[in-house]
Amino acid sequence: MAHDPSHDHGHHAEPEQNEIGGPVVFALILFGLVITIIAFLA
User: Fold this and answer.
1) 1-42: per-residue pLDDT in tens?
2) CA-to-CA distance for 24 and 17, rounded, in angstroms?
3) CA 8 to chain centre
4) Which region, left, alpha or beta, applies to residue 10 given φ > 0 means left and ψ of -120 to 50 means alpha?
5) Alpha helices, DSSP H only, in 1-42?
6) pTM, whole model, 2 decimals?
7) How far is residue 17's CA from residue 25's CA, in Å, rounded to a whole number?
8) How far apart are the first and last CA of the chain?
9) Integer Rg of the chain from CA
10) Distance between CA 20 and CA 8 in Å, rounded?
């Protein structure tokens, strides 16, 4: 039983999602900021 909670923690699925989601979210935020700055300056 001690092994079950450790395995049920979902530690395997978390890094995969974070590995892909992190750079994508960062790129989208950066893209949004660039578009906002260009629209503001235009």
Assistant:
1) 556 555 555 555 555 655 677 888 999 999 999 999 999 998
2) 11
3) 22
4) left
5) 3-7, 13-41
6) 0.49
7) 12
8) 63
9) 19
10) 22
b/e map 6-42, b = 16+ CB within 10 Å? eeeeeeeeeeeeeeeeeeeeeeeeeeeeeeeeeeeee
Kindly state the DSSP code that residue 2 receives in the 8-state scheme: -
Q: Which two tokens stand for residue 19?
A: 């590995």
What is the rounded distance in angstroms from the CA atom of residue 21 to the CA atom of residue 9?
20
| Paired tokens of 13 | 């699925």
How is residue 1 written in tokens? 């039983």
